[in-house]
Protein 1
Amino acid sequence: MKVYVAGLGVVSGLGVGVKSNFDALISKNHGIRSLSNEIDPFLENFPIARLNLDDRALSKLVGVQTRMPRTALLSMLAASEALNNSGLSAQQYRSGFISATTVGGMDLTEQYFLSQHQGGKKLGIRNIRNHECGRATHLAAEYLKVNSYVSTINTACSSSANSIMLGARLIKDNRLDVVIAGGADALTAFTLNGFNTLLLLDNELNKPFDAQRKGLNLGEGSGYVVLVSERLVQSGQVKPIAVLSGYANTTDAYHQTALSPDGNGPYLSMSGALKVAQVNPNQVDYINLHGTATPNNDASEGAAIIRLFNEGIPSISSTKSFTGHTLGASGGIEAVYSILAINHGVILPNLRYSTPMTEVAITPNAEVEYKPVNHVLSNSFGFGGNCTSLLFSKIS
Amino acid sequence: MRIFINGSACISPQPFFDCSKPLEGVSECVGDKLNCVEPDYTQLLDPRMLRRMSRIIKIGMASGLSAMSRANTSEIDAIITGTGFGCLEDTSSFLGKMIDASRAMNPTSFIQSTHNAIGSQIALHLRFNGYNNTIVHSGFAFESALDDALLLLKNGEAKNVLVGGIDELTQDLYTLLKRIQDIKERSNKINGRQASTIKYGEGCVYLVLSDTPNSDSVEIKEFNTFYKPDQKTLESALKSFSQENGIVMFGKNGDSSNDESYSWIESKYSNRNTFSFKNLCGEYPTAPAFGLWLSAALIKGIIPTSIIAAQNVNEVLIYNCFDNDYHSFIRLGKC
């Protein structure tokens, strides 16, 4: 039983919607244009990729009246775009919404505690009512009018790849016909400071897979795909745009915040996804890398790719050079980009690449390259060694 | 396909961790803040590792590894953890230092604040390379995790799965929950409802689920979840539950507005032996994991059935409703 993709929705530092994101990608216009002290004045100035809309403007765009976590607003915006794009109504089928987030309502929680700590006007306790990760999903599920299944995953930076994988498995099990799956994360002072204490932030623009890479730039956004069952496609009720042909979730089990030098977890997740799809490594045309631009991730991911693909390394690029690392949203955003690569027959570029890494000999695509793209691997690896790879394929 | 609980461990406000011999009974829960009775971790975990671990990670590690040793297995194919609030102590600590003048944030707190730290630490300890997921969907996180586990087993993607539910009650959380409840109480009063007797709790249960039983297994006979079901759907889910001498466990928490969600099922089973498990563990997002563990322990005779005023317990139905929208039925029985 195949699982198809029938709709896409995305919000990132590149803008709102699939079109503005794709246009920016092929024009090589990155979205890492803001600075971290807009969010936390105590931080030194790190580049960040922020959606150019404040909470009020975002609420207005989404059409909600009450105050909600920014994660929930980002989630609603991209998930509703994906659903509209599919032409389906969530009420008409057995529908599910599986989202992912690492911060949930942390932005309002920060504001609440800050107002308690400082003098002046205190914020009401209702601001923390939506702190839990599950609340952002719940609010968005109500907005989407999903009727059968709602869940939230947090496996750090691989979160939304896992929500897409779970959605596919629920469709294969014939529990659901339609699943909106992906994730959302707003930029918060909590995550910025967290990554800063770990010394993982670059104070310049990130350089994925480059010898000079120093660390990551954080970003925010949301990305969702609408997964549909084969039966729904065969009945002619929906027009699919790609197939989710493979997936695998594995654990690197090396270190809480670092991947193993040989990339064992990434190797297992990529090879596992190919195995599920019954696709050989030499059939893969493009890998949308996890490519955070930390010294550790890129060396480990590169080593795993060389181990799996040997001489026949496909085109590779990290679109985090455009969006920054959007954490719990990255798997969803990059799933959307991977499918755009298939549909437009284009390899997306990896910005700011100039010098090969010393650890592994592997070169990302620095330019936009048009060519047929049949199979794309999308990699997502998180803290705790949580590795997930998804394989998207052209409809044959 | 049949699915069995082959081993389990529970750290909760009740003295239920060590069940090498039959447990005597339950502790009386004094006050409305119920914290775990914790075991001596030095018997279970490397003391050098213990120094660096937060409390919730110790609780999770000790439960997860004990469930595996009790199931007599070192071979699992997946680790799935449900948690509503995640690792709050470290989240609060990092957030607190970020907001106060000190700005002395500790990277270890950030690392241990992520929800998936519990499942990851278990995987690191076991050098485990397989499927590892953490589900964080509020008061439905455990049921979602269980669902993921059963999906793997049913489709032959796994033969043994370590699945658990875990949440911690910190002082900060307790204070906030009380304040939120105070607001709710005001509206309850206006609507003529009784004052709540809610207790706040915490706990962890890990289970080894398997497609093959051992000599000590309890069977998961049925598991169903519903999101925003109509009443007809819920009632038809009850039909398959045998009408004989089973026990019905409810997830009522003492909040009158919440507990109204259970009145329909209570009226169906008014002549049956029913029990509210949150009286023993308190309310927390993954409390249904405690309800499941308690039910299995009653079936196995580890816990005297006198606590629920019953004799032999062969079958238990656990029904939990979260936020009026999320419903779960778990039916356990002797295999």
Note: Residues 171-190 of chain B form the longest helix (20 residues).
Protein 2
Amino acid sequence: MLAASAPSAAEGARVFQRCFSCHSVDPAEGHVQGPNLAGIVGRRAGTRPGYSYSPALRRARAGGLVWTEQALDHFLADPEAMIPGTEMSMPPLRKPRDRQAVIRFLQTTASPR
Amino acid sequence: MRKLLIAAAALAAGMMAGCGPAAAQQAQYFEVPKGGRPHDVAAAPDGTVWYTAQRTGKLGILDPKTGRAEEVPLGEGSAPHGVIVGPDGAAWITDGGLNAIVRVDPKTRAVKAWKLPEDTGYANLNTAAFDGRGRIWFTGQTGFYGRLDPASGDMKVWKAPEGRGPYGITATPAGEIYYVSLAGSHLAKVDLESGAATVIEPPTPDQGARRVWSDSQGRLWISEWNSGQLSRYDPKAGTWKSWTPPGEKPRTYSVYVDETDKVWITDFAANAILRFDPATETFQSFPSDRPGANVRQMLGRPGEAWGAESGTDRLVVIRY
């Protein structure tokens, strides 16, 4: 029996349409409603310059949260449960494959210089 | 299956006046089922108040007399954003999770959904308004707006002229439809027949227009997330005017105009609902009694302004 293949970045780009209205991943662009997510994987939370983070995200930053793959997976599964008070109103991404796909896609985005 | 819950209603003792005269109004809070994160509200004709439980995919129905909240599941994958009262007295919902316009019958609780066309893709449906001809217009934040005629089932979706961002939408008393673009920082007027949208640029660049509401004269009031301003556009004169709420770096999220043409806004930075009197150009503040209230929308009926505290799982009403 063949194991299901890991989701591709292209699959993640499609799932990311749910996020696109509030987040850019173009390093040349600024912030939209939410912060620019280019190069977010591995970055400390709440540190993208020029964005006014919510008190909840500022607390997460002070607590040392880093957006590892695991942390992003937890957050996307239930943002409010992981960071109570987050202003991100997106409903949870309940399918693990969708979350893996988005994270894979985010890994392909380049950090701004 | 419907779920009944006894919700506690708490009276807030005394209100604070931010920068206007002392408030005689009182705020009353209603707990609704935990975890739903109520996003939008609508005051229903039968005296109940509807809200979208975005996180749990339900339409909530609160009876303010008893404090009881009932929730109607909207379907697998539902994540409702907006809810309004239709001309048929039903709840009309923009459901981002289902990518559909959803109607809930207030008597039978029957749920009916109109999916967006397959080729539209995911629209991140946001807000809706009826045009006075029985058709519902809606916005999709990924860069769409559209129209559904419930009588025929005909649905049309158009790409927004400047891409992603369509958020709040409103109808004027004459039935004209305007929407605002959060990412595009503009107001747009929609031609009711051709569907063409005409962009109206505000004088403040990058203001982040999030929601829009019409007053009795057809003037458009706009809440600006980025600039923090409350702005008014007069279509007849073609003029703009803006006011900045009190406090440091206001983050103005929602706007609603009541039957007396007072303007209600919510400010995330101040954690407050504010009422603006255009005649005196003053704001009156109604801070929440809990931190992180995050009221994302308001709507009401004569004498009552309702909001949903998405951050505390409560509804709030200010009677005036």
Note: The domain at 9-107 of chain A is CATH 1.10.760.10 (Cytochrome Bc1 Complex; Chain D, domain 2).
Protein 3
Amino acid sequence: MRIGAYKVWLAGLGVVMAAGFCSYLRQLDSGLGITGLSRDVTWGLYIAQFTFLVGVAASAVMVVLPYYLHDCKSFARITVLGEFLAIAAVVMCMLFILVDLGQPTRVLNVLLYPSPRSVMFWDVLVLSGYLVLNILIAFVSLRAEREEVRTPGWLRPVILLSIPWAVGIHTVTAFLYNGLAARPLWLTALMAPRFLASAFASGPALLILLCMIMARTTKKPAPRAALDKLAVIVTYAMAITVFFLLMEIFTAFYSQVPGSTASWTYMLGGLEGHRGLAPWIWCSMLLAAASLVVLLVPRYRHRPELLAAGCGMVFLSVWLDKGIGLIVPAFVPSPLGQITDYAPSLPEILISLGIWAVGALIVTVLFRKTLDSR
Amino acid sequence: MNVTRQDFLRLSGLTFLSLAARRLAEAVLPTRWGMAIDTAKCLGEAHCGQCIAACHQVHNVPDLPDPRHQIRWIWKDSFAHVFEEQIDEYSPLRAAPAMVLCNHCDNPPCTRVCPTQATWKRADGIVEMDYHRCIGCRYCIAACPYGSRSFNWQNPRPYIRQPNPEFPTRTKGVVEKCNFCSERLAAGKQPACVEACPEKALVFGNLADPQSPVRQLLASRRHMLRKPELGTRPQVFYIL
């Protein structure tokens, strides 16, 4: 029965991937015009998903750091899961960048003509490096565990390197945006700290949910002690995320500097009757507030079903914040004062779902791999 | 063809000398292309669009029906939009049209962010594009504070009215923008928009030469720049 359900799940992912792939072939053929993007809003769903997923990838450090630096024994079972989640997230990041390119066949130009002045060049380097680090660490330590031998000594410096590297990938990704004088919404030194805080909330929240799902499907007990510790990390990271968000809103509205106030007004209330984003942003804020109520009270947090609900709300809230609130409003109004609404098109949504299915497949296969070893 | 060793050395020597001479000329007489737009003259002909038509014809800029996908090298917008921070509600210029094109910034943010050096600033100040190297990431569009860059959301070729075989057409998926007519400058001609303007409202020339008409004009008339506070140092000046 369990095998049957697993096969149905894989088949379902296959269908979603196939739909995404077909849509991508259409996009390759007719160009990015089949997305909802336009002259004025030139980045949308793809780049937003990329940004969100860099956060999920970086958040592996929230299990790696306590386990390897603070010898937090309860994380022994989930550290490798965190690294596997990071691998899936980085692969998804790369796919989202690839589908966003107008000329994907020329992507190697980034390496053929290295441009150290471009943050995107560095982002490609740090993301690829992070993928290699996590593949190396996860597979070598899993093998050592399976063969019941100590992890090789050379792995420890690699693990230590992966810790600042994780912070680095999300910092460099923030620099992609906050180094641009043209976009007042992004021109804030709080961008990287905000990215890291929201990443350390949403990534571990997803990991908790995945561990719970894995425990349910394999009928094995969930690693309670580890999940409780992770829940504390999610709670405080989310509190800091909300705090940072309020800082941005205060600065934009109290200073009344037109540039950033305009984008925030567009997000929260709408500009000149264009209020397509507002419901999503308010939804994100309500979810953030509700998740904090659930997570900050230990009595609630310790109940598995409430923990799951809290983590689900954190994940959704940050996904809406980074996936909808971060990228598009920076292009509204345009440098020439145009207000252009953006909504992803159907092929664009299918391609994005296809990439999420690839990520889900990688997580499924890799997480299953950890079961064989026990 | 027989080339003796002596001929070869002579030819090589001449080549190096001419290269060095060119470098020297560039150092002594630098070129810095720039443009001054005499807005009063431009306003005289409210419905004129000859500069736009000339530019877009010469450069094979497509005429796309969907406004969301339009490509623009030079176009007209209102002063209120172009100088949002500098035009107040009582200004007589508010609704007046202003020509908009790439500013060919002295400190261009677009070239800084390009991950493949598909766009770069030449020694003469022109911000140039290589359509064959561009990967279409649109980072330059995000970085441009003036909205001067366009992306090919679809294949532009079916929408080019009268293709000009002298200038390359573009493919889908690459960024393009005004090139200050670098191809015409190389042939000793003025930019197409400058030549087409019936009012002679566009003055193009070498900003590094104090005697050039454009410098004389800038020295004698009040002018403004788009978003000077961003430090991009635009090289397109609007004369009031």
Note: The first strand of chain B starts at residue 33 and ends at 38.
